[in-house]
Automatic annotation (TrEMBL):
This is Two-component response regulator ARR17. InterPro entries: ARR-like, CheY-like_superfamily, Sig_transdc_resp-reg_receiver. It comes from Acorus calamus. Keywords: Phosphoprotein, Two-component regulatory system. Residues 17-145 form the Response regulatory domain.
Length: 175
């Protein structure tokens, strides 16, 4: 994991806390720098499995307090990663009752329309082409989650199967 401590993701005031997932260290550091430059709090993960562990969705069942989950503002993930694609990560998060409302943005250097469509149809808020630009990062604020959406009750989350992945474009671009 990167910048932030694993103690928790937080949103303090207007500061959004973003979990950025990319297996390429250069890309991950670049995205982190862009996000921090726009006053986002950033935690990084180098693969989908580490991101799931950070969110409490590893292979073993976990009990997570929704109050901790509500501190997550957004997940931005690379599409092409070894072991688990960004699409598979998104599906896993969307299957979790306590995490399903967290916006997921998928990024990729590959502009493949069928992947773009599938990601958006399956729950991605937006698809961004790499390399990300400052204008892309500024658009993330509109995807933040509301803390009031979650209640402070524990939920149990167990292992669920992964699904195959494809990339998407912005939902707003398709409407």
């Amino acid at each position: 994991m990167g910048s932030s401590s694993a103690a928790g993701l937080s949103k303090e005031g207007d500061e959004l806390h973003i979990l950025a997932v990319d297996d390429n260290i250069v890309e991950r550091l670049f995205v982190e720098k862009l996000l921090k430059g726009s006053a986002y709090k950033v935690t990084t993960a180098d693969n989908g499995f580490r991101a799931l562990e950070y969110l409490g969705l590893g292979d073993e069942p976990y009990v997570i307090l929704k109050s901790n989950i509500s501190k997550i503002s957004l997940v931005i993930t690379d599409y092409c990663m070894p072991g688990m694609t960004g699409y598979e990560l998104m599906k896993k998060i969307k299957e979790s009752p306590g995490l399903k409302d967290i916006p997921i943005v998928i990024m990729s250097s590959e502009n493949i329309p069928t992947r773009i469509e599938k990601c958006l149809e399956e729950g991605a808020e937006e698809f961004m082409l790499k390399p990300l630009q400052q204008s892309d990062v500024k658009r993330l604020r509109c995807h933040e989650t509301s803390r009031e959406r979650f209640q402070e009750n524990p939920i149990e989350i167990g292992h669920k199967p992964f699904f195959p992945m494809t990339n998407g474009a912005s939902k707003t671009e398709q409407n």
